């Protein structure tokens, strides 16, 4: 993080003070301070920001603060406890930068787990971002929990791409697009409507209805086993499709066909470890994760 940005936020955190809080830039951004509250109103609307009395770093900081608060709090007006706002904001922008859209957190990250947006190691509590590829190494696993409570568990040597996530701001998403590109996965839908989900592999597309799926992506084929709910599985061309409606039903998909099988079943249970409730194989709520507490603090909840 730019040293000027860090210094300005540290000043806010420690002294509950926005430099020149009554000045032109503060007025244009809609930032004021009342006792121990920072008050953010969306009055910026893309207008040119005055440079009088402000460093460029601080201007960028306040613009990012306004944009992030507006997006994550999903409210036109937020009264934010100043000390918690500064701490949460510093934690979030320190890794992601201004342009990455945070869509969830890592609930589990064991051994070698990496992300691509930006390139970094992922640990428990790390944010994950839209348009990011998450990879696990040998003897490694991970669980990602999105803001709508969608759970994605990865076994060893697995890659998943978080293609798209459009958050509605009420615990659901308008669109959730995930590409399982390699390896072993357990996928659990969250609170979003069934038509919000677009799930793909190199050879298959999957539609879901309140679903838990075990997915194994191999070279040239995908094996999908229904754990709970129902799913509609097709080749990428859409010419061959199979409905899974009973727990334990399995489909093998290639570029040419999707066929039910009783001989090539796959289960993610082997990757679950000792705990089947919670851990990799059971559902985790986004609100229970450490990163979610930062956002709640940022929004004054």
What is the subunit organization of this protein?
single chain
CATH class categorisation of the largest domain: Mainly Beta
Strand content: 35-45%
Please give the CATH architecture of the largest domain: Sandwich
Task: Write a short abstract of this structure.
With 301 residues, the chain is of the alpha+beta class. The protein is 20% helix and 39% strand.
Could you please describe the fold and organization of this structure?
The chain is an alpha+beta fold and 301 residues long. The protein folds into 2 domains: 3-99, no CATH class; 102-286, Jelly Rolls. The protein contains 5 helices and 18 strands. It has helices spanning 3-15, 24-29, 56-73, 82-96, 290-298, and strands at 31-34, 37-40, 78-81, 102-110, 113-116, 119-121, 127-129, 132-136, 141-146, 151-154, 159-167, 173-188, 197-200, 204-218, 221-235, 241-244, 250-253, 258-261. It has a 15-stranded mixed sheet that branches. Strands 1-2-3 form a 3-stranded antiparallel sheet. Helix 1 (3-15) packs antiparallel against helix 4 and helix 4 crosses helix 5. It starts with a helix and ends with a helix. The model is unreliable at 1-58, 83-87 and 90-98 (pLDDT under 50).
Highlighted features:
301 residues, alpha+beta, Jelly Rolls, 2 domains, 15-stranded mixed β-sheet, 3-stranded antiparallel β-sheet, 5 helices, disordered N terminus
